[in-house]
Please model this.
Amino acid sequence: MKSSKAIAGRYLGYHAADAAQPFARFFNPRMAPVAPHVGAALDRGGVPAPLLPGFEDASENLFGGTAVLEDGFVLTQDGGMRVSVRTEMPGVTPAMVDWWFGWHGDTPAKYKLWHPQAHVHVGWRETPPAGTSGRALYIGQTSIVDEYIGSTLIRGAIRFVPPASLGFTDRSLDDDSRATIVCARIGLGDAPIDIGYLVHHVRAVAGGSEMRSRFWMGGRHVGGRNLIGSLAAPIAKLVQRLGEGDARALLVHCAEEMPHLAGFLPALHAEFAGSSNAFATQ
Model:
């Protein structure tokens, strides 16, 4: 993936101002190794395309009755990739995940809790409505993020969309004690070009939740957000041609940040979710 240039004043880790935040005690720069099932997927390498269905089969892949490959990656002939990761999240509920996606997006120090070795900066493109939280806060909003995927600094635009707009209408999603699904169009932060989709399906299981993440990136998923972007998309499709290194880096990034999040989210949620104003803890 194409690298972004660093912006002055944006940095990895915590500085003094970050450490003074009321949630700073949840910042832990030490991260556990990836789970054994992820390590096995990395050892295996790329898999045949039928094992990780395309975007048009996303709903069946996550809500169908057929067993699916939960960890791995595919490189597609058009220069794209598909990545799949499963994360066990003890003590976490689907509602907590919705709360997190609404809560963290306004403050870089919050975002850094999630992946202290890769997350640099975050901010909403437009300020969400006051007094909202969870799904109501993040759906319809765009999060501009600076993060490392592997050793590459990426500036991304993550536009959160209603699940139904991507075909996710399973009845379990009506009850956030049972399930939720976070859906987004992923684009470039510095240009009006989209490059893929992500979904994080979270379902309650005994003792917590299981997250099943899917990414469909590059190739036919590259498109413009406006006329200028549409004109530039064919060039971007060539520039953003993705390879095995990109797929491995994205798989590892997701497999690191989601278990790390699960390690502190129940306690963070218990302390900070009581406020009706999502911006009260800045």
